[in-house]
Amino acid sequence: MDDDDQGATVLLAAAGRLEVLAARTTGGSWAVGGLLASRPEVIARAADGGTEHVAEARARTAEWIVTLSPAVAGPLAAWLRSAADVTPVDPHALALARVLTG
Q1: Edge to edge, what strands does the sheet with 51-53 contain?
Q2: What are the distances in angstroms from CA 36 to CA 30, 52, 56?
Q3: 33: closest CA among 47, 51, 58?
Q4: What is the pTM of this model?
Q5: C-alpha–C-alpha distance, residues 60 and 63, integer Å
Q6: Taking a C-beta distance cutoff of 8 angstroms, is the pair 80, 63 a contact?
Q7: What does the alpha-carbon distance between residue 44 and residue 31 come to, in Å, rounded to a whole number?
Q8: Sign, CA torsion 48/92/76/8
Q9: From which domain of life does this come (predicted)?
Q10: Cα–Cα distance, 31 to 93 (Å, whole number)
Q11: Angle between helices 58-67 and 3-24 (to 10 degrees)
């Protein structure tokens, strides 16, 4: 297996892990809320209008939070910057950027 094949294997494994974790974590659109500014809460808003406090679903969300820790920011930001330098812009990178920027 050459370096490109190994790299592709790692990329596919990472994509699969994200999909598995996303499927079992609290769904919906997450937003910061709560009654006290000093104690913000993460609230998931479902498509049907329901809400769930993410902390109440800790068993389902803990691994997701650990996987997407701040350690992801550097490599992800570097990839987005790299994608911005390519014409045409990678539509998947652009879709992720739009999710991140709201």
Answers
A1: 29-33, 41-45, 51-53
A2: 17, 17, 17
A3: 51
A4: 0.73
A5: 7
A6: no
A7: 6
A8: positive
A9: Bacteria
A10: 22
A11: 150
Say which residue the tokens 């809400």 belong to: 51
Contacts 24+ apart (CB under 8 A), 29-33: 30/54
Q: Write out pLDDT tens, residues 38-87.
A: 888 889 999 999 998 887 778 888 888 888 888 899 999 999 999 999 89
- State the amino acid at position 34 in one-letter form: G
Closest by CA to 55, choosing from 68, 45, 46, 42, is 42
pLDDT band, residue 17 (cuts 50/70/90): very high
Q: Please state, in angstroms and rounded to a whole number, the distance separating the CA atoms of residues 6 and 10.
A: 6
Q: For the chain, what percent of residues have pLDDT higher than 70? A: 98
